[in-house]
């Protein structure tokens, strides 16, 4: 995705539907539970209703995104494992061989490993938006520099 395409998508975003938010709030307030008893879950559902324009949300399709990256501390010798472990975890996630995948399966959730900077060549595990091979050593780059996410958006 180019920056122009991203700008066009952003321009097409409509304001939240406050009537849908109010309808979702009224629905949850009418249930046999303490008002606001589900805390942030209720406000998150109200936000989702406002964004979709409907108080009836379809959450039948769910996914757990696992963002995988080597963060650079391996090169400093302060990590208990090397970068091969990150790749192995991503490959096992893609092959559905992890306990997290089993739990997600029980909850009917898809697991999507996302390569956000695993060292070495990309594997065959369905990665999306790879910003680069591994993360830089932490002391050598300011935090939140904005240098890595954009390529991920453009490819994703």
What does this structure look like?
It contains six helices and two strands, in the order αααβααβα. It has helices at residues 3-11, 18-30, 40-52, 84-94, 99-106, 149-155, and strands at residues 62-68, 109-115. It has a two-stranded parallel sheet. The longest helix is centred in the N-terminal third of the chain and has 13 residues, at 18-30. It is extended, with a radius of gyration of 20 Å. The model has no long low-confidence stretch (mean pLDDT 81).
Short recap of the structure:
The protein is mostly helical.
Features:
single chain, 156 residues, mainly alpha, two-stranded parallel ribbon, extended
Chart the SSEs and their pairings.
Layout: H1 3-11, H2 18-30, H3 40-52, E1 62-68, H4 84-94, H5 99-106, E2 109-115, H6 149-155
Parallel strand pairs: 1-2
Helix pairs in contact: 2-3
């Amino acid at each position: 995705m180019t920056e122009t395409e991203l700008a066009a998508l952003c321009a097409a975003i409509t304001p939240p539907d406050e009537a849908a938010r109010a309808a979702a709030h009224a629905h949850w307030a009418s249930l046999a539970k303490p008002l606001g008893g589900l805390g942030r879950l209720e406000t998150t559902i109200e936000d989702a209703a406002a964004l979709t324009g409907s108080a009836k949300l379809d959450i039948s399709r769910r996914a757990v995104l696992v963002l995988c990256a080597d963060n650079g501390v391996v090169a400093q010798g302060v990590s208990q494992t090397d970068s091969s472990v990150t790749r192995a975890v991503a490959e096992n996630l893609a092959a559905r061989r992890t306990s997290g995948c089993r739990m997600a399966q029980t909850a009917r959730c898809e697991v999507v490993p996302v390569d956000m900077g695993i060292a070495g060549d990309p594997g065959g595990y369905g990665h999306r938006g790879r910003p680069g091979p591994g993360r830089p050593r932490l002391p050598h780059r300011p935090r939140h520099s904005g240098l890595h996410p954009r390529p991920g958006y453009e490819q994703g």
